[in-house]
Amino acid sequence: MSKIAVVTGGAGAIGQAVADRLAKENRTIVLLDLNEEAGKEVVAGFLKRGIDLTFLRADPRSRSDSRFR
């Protein structure tokens, strides 16, 4: 069974580095970021390297985002 890692700010440089490290540990990765366009680009880059991950446009700081209630 794979462990799941959620990376906030996943479309940024630090988030990508964290995701890369977690991928080397065979984690299931979910990236969260406000920037949907950048998130899709990050996912495409990882897929080219054979790393499957999920991206969600989300703001975990926001109480109005129903995914975090």
Strand runs, count: 3
How do the helices and strands follow one another from N- to C-terminus?
EHEHE
Report the span from N to C terminus: 26 Å
Q: Globular, elongated, flat, extended or rod-shaped: what is the shape?
A: globular
CATH architecture: 3-Layer(aba) Sandwich
Number of separate helices: 2
Q: Sheet bearing the most strands, described?
A: 3 strands, parallel
Any chance you could write out the topology, listing elements then pairs?
Elements: E1 4-8, H1 13-24, E2 28-33, H2 36-48, E3 54-57
Parallel strand pairs: 1-2, 2-3
Q: How would you portray this structure in words?
A:
By secondary structure, this protein is α/β, with parallel strands linked by helices. The chain has one domain (4-60): Rossmann fold. Helix content is 36%, strand content 22%. The chain has two helices and three strands, in the order E-H-E-H-E. It has helices at residues 13-24, 36-48, and strands at residues 4-8, 28-33, 54-57. It has a three-stranded parallel β-sheet, with helices on one face. It is globular. It starts with a strand and ends in a 12-residue tail after the last strand. The relative contact order is 0.21. The model has no long low-confidence stretch (mean pLDDT 89).
